[in-house]
Amino acid sequence: RLLIDQLRELGSEDALIVTKNRDQRLELAGRNLPNVKVLAVAGLNVRDVLARRSLVLTRDALEAIVERLA
Fold first, then answer.
1. What would the 3-class secondary structure string for the chain be?
2. Residues 58-63: what's their mean pLDDT?
3. What gap in Å lies between CA 44 and CA 17, rounded to an integer?
4. Tag placement on the chain: N or C end, fewer CB within 10 Å?
5. Could you report the per-residue pLDDT of 1-27, keeping only the tens digit for each?
6. What's the rounded Cα separation, in Å, for the pair 11 and 41?
7. pLDDT, mean of residues 26-32
8. What gap in Å lies between CA 21 and CA 10, rounded to an integer?
9. Tell me, what's the pLDDT at 1?
């Protein structure tokens, strides 16, 4: 319930949430929502990014993505 409320505050209930490392609690919460997917940076791919209306990144995930692409 908390996750969906936070996504509504961000203006999107159709989102890909990316974390630096796997977060089992967040994955379990996201699994119950039909339009939400939770991935770690290591599992990030173009198909999942394009399939959702919003991309939600943790600060650590963004830094890891920048390092990975540099």
1. CHHHHHHHHHCCCCEEEEECCCCHHHHHHHHCCCCEEEEEHHHCCHHHHHHCCEEEECHHHHHHHHHHHC
2. 97
3. 10
4. C
5. 788 899 999 888 899 999 999 999 999
6. 23
7. 92
8. 22
9. 78
Q: Rounded CA gap, 52 and 57, in Å?
A: 13
Distance CA 24, CA 34 (A): 17
Q: How far, in Å, CA of 24 to CA of 46, rounded?
A: 22
Task: Please report, as a single letter, which amino acid is at residue 1.
Answer: R
What the block records as the tokens of 44 is 């990030």
Cα separation, 24 vs 62, whole angstroms: 19
Residue with tokens 């996201």: 30
